[in-house]
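Quick start: load a record and inspect it. Here is Prepilin leader peptidase/N-methyltransferase:
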Amino acid sequence: MYGVVVTGLLGLLVGSFLNVVVWRVPRGESVVAPPSACPRCHARIAWYDNVPVISWLALRGRCRRCELPISWRYPVVELATGLLFAGTFLLVGWSWEVPAFLYLAGITVCLTLIDIDVHRLPNAIVLPSYGVGGALLALAAWNPGGTADPGALLRAAVAGAGLFAFYFLLAVIHPRGMGFGDVKLAGVLGLYLGWVGWSAVGVGAFAAFLLGGVFGLVLTLVGRAGRKTSVPFGPWMLVGAAVGVVAGEPIARAYLDALT
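Running the structure step on this input writes:
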């Protein structure tokens, strides 16, 4: 329980930072300077007005100085990140995998929101994730004080390259339906899915297309989208990867059992 609480609180803090990332990175701005300020009166946000969720509630969703409304999305992102971090700890427990999967949870939040907002997956986040994710998974494979698992790391590398190649082929065949941001993200997600296992790779990849297709169909049926409407696919890749990580093995087993 202690670990769940700690990672949940960490997630709240990270979620506050991710709000900055989601706003600034697509605009090519620094995420560390200048300090956050009100866009209307330009008053800098004091530390006591920047406590995740609590400050927004205390201020009733308004700037302390000019009372400009503050979007409800800020506390929602903070709370969602906290819950996602806590859920990640429940999934992997006390292990060297925790840093790797907390990092995945963090980029899942910011890439999902950025892709929804601007229909883009910034290289500034995706490309460094190869190095960061790979290094953290390598640490988990080394497993200081425990039993090393180089096979999992090799499987992760093969799955990452394979999923990248698969999406690259789709982008070449149908460039209007698949962006190269999706291709680059596929390699990162392949690393994590491969680490979990081949069942996770298959289920995670398939779930992205299934869920994204269902969402697009629903939008079309309710008149919110047409054949030429661009729907960001990155969020569905991330959701599909989550399905693969959490439930890839039981889903694959149930599917194979149904065939026999």
